[in-house]
Write a structure and sequence with these properties.
Radius of gyration: 15 Å
Structural class: alpha/beta
Order of helices and strands: EHEHEHEHEH
Strand content: 15-25%
Distance between the termini: 42 Å
CATH superfamily: Response regulator
Largest sheet: 5 strands, parallel
Helix content: 25-40%
CATH class: Alpha Beta
Length: 141
């Protein structure tokens, strides 16, 4: 008898203030078989999360309103939200360094190739029962 496999698609929340980037990422992720939600800033992302928790968050660090650092601080205060893996994106090394200090599981320097993002997402969402490390150890330099 084969084990039952949960066929529910992982849900990814894309948070970026640039609508063209956000729409591109959502389109690519949907084409890859993921369910998506998107938000233009941290406040909107928290509202989305109040309705439905994502399996992973792709987060721009430099946004007006609530930036990525403030969003991460708020996220880590939430019970269920505290364990959601986050991939931070920024063109600024200093923002990525802050994101790492705030516990993101991965970070990408803009601009980046989409396949790099897809590989990072796959690594964080793939179950690795035979490996004794956690998602936080998968941070890419």
């Amino acid at each position: 008898m084969q084990p039952t496999i949960n066929r529910q698609k992982p849900r990814i929340l894309v948070v970026d203030d640039h609508s063209a980037i956000r729409q591109l990422l959502v389109q690519v992720l949907q084409e890859e078989g993921y369910d998506t939600d998107d938000a233009g800033d941290g406040h909107e992302a928290l509202r989305h999360m109040a309705r439905r928790q994502p399996d992973l968050i792709v987060l721009d660090m430099m946004m007006p309103g609530m930036d990525g650092c403030t969003f991460l601080q708020e996220l880590r205060k939430q019970g269920p939200g505290a364990t959601i893996p986050v991939i931070a994106m920024s063109a600024a090394d200093s923002m990525l360094a802050q994101a790492v200090q705030l516990g993101v599981q991965n970070h990408l320097k803009k601009p980046f190739e989409l396949n790099v993002l897809l590989n990072a997402i796959g690594m964080l969402l793939r179950p690795w029962p035979e490996h004794p490390f956690t998602a936080s150890q998968l941070t890419m330099a």
